[in-house]
Specification:
With 199 residues, the protein is mostly helical. The chain contains six helices and two strands.
């Protein structure tokens, strides 16, 4: 019995596919050099797109603006932690408190980004054509969200303990929070311009 994947590939070969943009078709043909260009088309009918409405795009824009603010906060808290590192290592209690406070703010900013990612992923689930830039941006956001969820497990385990490894944990938390913010901004970017590159 043939697998579902094999059947989908065979159907594409026989029937061809319809792409939302000329760029999507061009990318597909580049990735599949043996594909028959005459069997694949670009959707030319206005209004038929599965893409989001203006209201949906506005939601993504608002999330991108909030994301930019959170990114600045995350970077500031991380810088504070790096500056306090030496004092913390010298057992300065005041520095430890400031360090822990900065880490908590850093983590909470990441959690806010996680919630925003979850909201956008639910909102746009199954909204875009397979192979579109919008779908690619959502997949990257999903991966960033999953990465954050792994980091948050470590945070929960080590939350009340101060260790000298906490700066390393903060670096990891900062990196994953920044990645979430980047992916949230990318959703807004591709909704405004479906031809935009998703990096």
């Amino acid at each position: 019995m043939a697998s579902k994947l094999a059947l989908r590939v065979a159907a594409r070969f026989i029937q061809g596919m319809e792409f939302p943009t000329e760029k999507a078709l061009k990318d597909y043909l580049h990735e599949h050099p043996g594909a028959d260009k005459s069997k694949h088309t670009v959707d030319k009918k206005p209004g038929k797109s599965k893409g989001p409405s203006k209201v949906d795009s506005d939601l993504a824009d608002r999330e991108a603006q909030q994301s930019a603010k959170r990114k600045q906060e995350v970077d500031a808290e991380y810088s504070t932690m790096k500056e306090l590192k030496q004092s913390v290592e010298n057992d300065n209690p005041s520095a430890k408190k400031k360090f822990d406070r900065a880490y908590t703010k850093l983590y909470h900013s990441g959690e806010s980004a996680h919630k925003a990612a979850d909201k956008l992923l639910k909102k746009y689930k199954d909204s875009f054509s397979e192979g579109s830039q919008e779908e690619a941006a959502l997949e990257l956001l999903q991966h960033a969200k999953s990465d954050w969820e792994r980091v948050s497990i470590d945070h929960a385990r080590k939350q009340d303990k101060f260790t000298h490894e906490k700066l390393l944990q903060a670096e990891q938390t900062h990196g994953y929070a920044s990645q979430l913010e980047k992916r949230l901004s990318a959703i807004s970017k591709v909704l405004k311009d479906p031809e935009a590159e998703v990096d």
